[in-house]
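I wish you would study the pair of lines that follows with an eye to the fold:

===
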Amino acid sequence: MTDQLGSELLKLRTTRTTAWFLLAAVAVTVLGTLVEGLSTSLGRLAQEDPQRTVLGAGGSGATLFATFAGLIAVTSEFRYGTIRPTLLFEPRRRVVLGAKLAAATLVGIVFAVVCLLVSFGAGLVILAERNVDVTLSGAQMLALVLGTVAASALGGVLGASVGALIRNQVGAVVAIVAYAFLVDAVVFAAVPSVGRFLPGKAGDALAGQPVEHLLAPALGGAVLVAWTLLFAAMAAVRMDRSDI
């Protein structure tokens, strides 16, 4: 397992797509921080929820692109046929899948840490330039950081699991995008009592996003973990029972 994990991490480090996803996540973070920090009135910016939005602007981008990175890490092997030599080297399919899920988890953590450094750095500079005191406590900031890191890590695992289920790279990417911007957003807007239990909104709750109708962070985390375990289990069954 250790050797296989090292191999998966090497693939991710040497794949330009992963770097491009990280850069895209950083770009989205910068944009989100600037928009939220500069467009919000001084009166509102002095409140806890707007500051949580500004400082946590890296959460959504980190989670989304970590999901894509996990997905590509799996589907690229099927697209280019490298899954065959991978399984010749390590024929235990669940070990291979487990290593990919572990690698996707680490990628999600890295994405979250980088994006949080950017959003916290830019956000605190904006608050200082606008002469607004930070009202979030150290405990609130820590919860924001830990929740975002956990949501991004689980997003990476979900992406890898979906990749193992669908395998076709284009189809998997389209499915993720369609879900994120159609199913997740539309259901939450129409029926928030149901939509808040979907993976995307559960991740927002875990990351501490101050959005009305979201679950409490702890409950959102539990729901997201449940979804992640479900998709990982389905991916394991798919790997075991289907031809490569």
The chain is about 85% helix and 0% strand. The chain has one domain: 2-241. The chain has a mean pLDDT of 89.
